[in-house]
Amino acid sequence: MTQNIETIRELSIDQRLALKTAATQLLTEFGDMFGVETIERFLHSSYDQFAGRATVVNFLPLLAERFARQRLRALAKVEGKSDNGLPTVLFLCTHNAGRSQMAMGFFEHLAGDNAVAWSGGSEPGISVNSEAVAAMAERGIDISHEYPKPWTDEVVRAADVVITMGCGDACPVFPGRRYEEWVLADPAGLDVDAIRPIRDDIERRVRALLEELDVTVAA
Q1: Could you give all domains of the chain from N- to C-terminal order, each with its CATH number?
Q2: Is 167 a known active-site residue?
Q3: Active-site residue identified among 93, 117, 165, 190
Q4: pLDDT in tens, 114-124
Q5: Which distant-in-sequence residues (6+ apart) come within 8 Å of 88 by Cβ?
Q6: Taking residues 104-122, what's their average pLDDT?
Q7: DSSP class of 150
């Protein structure tokens, strides 16, 4: 595997083993579309995206694998190597810790297997807002397993619709995408009571978006 020396020195034996296992798994999934170097490059660059701000380093290989898998799926769609034909929506906000995570949670819950949702942030936070997690749990939707992540070129290019929420000029713009700005209050620092109206507004917008995309609601 190719990786810079400084990063390799910082990895424990368990982390190196976990990354090697992740690379093997990704190669099994994507080896018919991409070469080993591409897959490892995406895995290691995904690892680097989280390494600088992670508080629990033991989870870094798992996060890197999950993010690399999403990016490789996006790249496969962009390059015409794999496309399930499902509408793909990308939700973007600043920290990918509140609004975009709630929107993706509603979208996945309502769309089921009939559409694809991703999320990202221009300045990803450390963790998903715990109060937002609690507010979504009231609606029976668990977003506690999600994690803040950046947007990448291939993910944006693979999206059919890009929903932005307060990231302003930092949000990426590529031709051929449908862009829509949702003006929503930032739930950062708010308690569950204050987040509920934001949550409900997001749900209404997601339902309207699904209707516009002619996606059958599964729930």
Answers
A1: 5-78 (1.10.8.1060), 88-212 (3.40.50.2300)
A2: yes
A3: 93
A4: 999 999 999 99
A5: 77, 115, 116, 117, 118, 158, 159, 160, 161
A6: 96
A7: B
